[in-house]
Automatic annotation (TrEMBL):
UniProt-recorded Gene Ontology molecular function terms: isomerase activity
Coiled-coil ranges from the UniProt annotation: none
Kinase is among the record's keywords: no
Name under which the protein is recorded: 5-carboxymethyl-2-hydroxymuconate isomerase
Lineage of the species this protein comes from: Bacteria, Bacillati, Actinomycetota, Actinomycetes, Kitasatosporales
Keyword check for Protein transport: no
Keywords, alphabetical: Isomerase
InterPro entries membership: 5-COMe_2-OHmuconate_Isoase, Tautomerase/MIF_sf
Recorded superkingdom: Bacteria
Length: 123
């Protein structure tokens, strides 16, 4: 924990430094939410197709969802959202003629029902 999911438009496949983003994101999260890098998990999902607004412009999207155990203040989550947004933008090379829509959502994992296992063998 935290669990991070990154959805990105297919057109960003060559311009989005996913590994660099993940490696920079984990220490940022650990500092901001007082966690550990070892607990961070990021997965990337390439979106083959998306429609943005009226579909009349060349556009791409990059959306980051950060799921944390509940208990952080709204201010802490807003600070984290802004920091992750800046970091995401730093890891995508500009593409002339393409408008990039970047967003971040920080959401809660319910402490009472969240379970996890790390190690060899079955959970």
């Amino acid at each position: 924990m935290p669990h991070i999911t990154v959805d990105y438009s297919d057109v960003l496949a060559e311009t989005f430094d996913r590994r660099g983003f993940g490696l920079a994101l984990h220490p940022l999260l650990a500092r901001t939410v007082k966690g550990s890098v070892a607990g961070c998990k990021t997965r990337f999902r390439r979106i083959e197709e998306c429609v943005i607004a009226d579909g009349g412009q060349e556009a791409a999207m990059l959306h980051v969802e950060v799921a944390l155990l509940s208990g952080r203040t709204p201010e802490a989550k807003a600070e984290l959202s802004r920091a992750v947004l800046g970091l995401a933008r730093d890891h995508v090379k500009p593409m002339p003629g393409i408008t990039l829509h970047t967003s971040v959502d920080v959401c809660d994992l319910a402490r009472g029902s969240y379970a996890s296992h790390t190690g060899e063998g079955p959970a």
